[in-house]
Amino acid sequence: MTADDTASDLTRLPDNPTARPPEPFAGPDHPMRTLTRAVAFGEPWTSAHAARVADLFDGLAPEWAARASDPDRTAPIADALERGDCPLDGSWLEIGSGTGIGTAVVAPLVRSLVATDLSAEMLRQAPGVAPRLRADGSMLPVRDDGVDAVLLVNMMLFPAEIDRVLRRAGALVWVNTRGDQTPIHLPQHDVLAALPGRWRATTASAGQGFWMVARRAR
After folding, report:
1. Residue-level pLDDT at 66
2. Is the dihedral of CA 23, 24, 28, 33 positive or negative?
3. What are the domain boundaries of the chain?
4. Helices first, then strands: H and E counts in the chain
5. Per CATH, which fold does 3-216 belong to?
6. Measured distance CA(189)–CA(41) in Å, rounded
7. CA geometry: angle at 176 spanning 200 and 26, to 5°?
8. Alpha-carbon gap, residue 207 to 214, rounded angstroms
């Protein structure tokens, strides 16, 4: 897929009234961003990668839990649910759920949600509003075509695994809560380019971040 093809598959909605530029935080050379891009576009995800990332986020868990309900960070998640035509009556899987910033917003509004993360400490700190499961996003314990929606908030993209677990008409909800200043960041057009096949998506900004809801093109 070319850059022009990807752009034509992305519809931008008017920004939410809460939208504002993100405060400087993580630039293009941030190591997590570098790893995110590499993995999305085919670099192998190894057990060494998994161990390092799990250790990193185990250590960050207490700090993250203390600011999990920051309305500026939850704004793009809430806006995606309101304007992204998400399958609220379906089964949802959250990958990289962390301390539950997305879980707390989404769980009360959808039929079912399972939250997964590689970090045991992140899961321990998360609110008990949905089942929590420790899992590697590159090899999920989910059957093929098993869920109606996959939620990723500030999470690495494993394109083949998303393609495997998401039902044919399912939705990928991609959120970067600090926009292009998010350490684990991929812009919308890169997400669409990395996914197998052709996808169409809607996107908008809210708070300091953005959301995108993508579906396979028919």
Report:
1. 75
2. negative
3. 3-216
4. 8, 8
5. Rossmann fold (3.40.50)
6. 13
7. 135
8. 20
Collapsed DSSP state (helix, strand, coil) of residue 183: coil
Instruction: Tell me the two tokens of residue 112.
Output: 């079912």
Give 72's pLDDT tier (boundaries 50, 70, 90): confident
Return the amino acid letter for 47.
S
Q: Where are the alpha helices (DSSP H) in the chain?
A: 3-8, 31-40, 47-66, 71-83, 101-106, 120-125, 159-165, 188-194
Residue range 177-204, pLDDT digits in tens: 999 999 999 999 999 999 999 999 999 9
3-class DSSP state of 68: coil
Cα 62 to Cα 20, 65, 105, 121, distances in angstroms: 27, 5, 19, 8
**pLDDT over threshold 90, residue 1:** no
Separation of alpha carbons 143 and 164, rounded Å? 8
Which pTM was predicted?
0.94
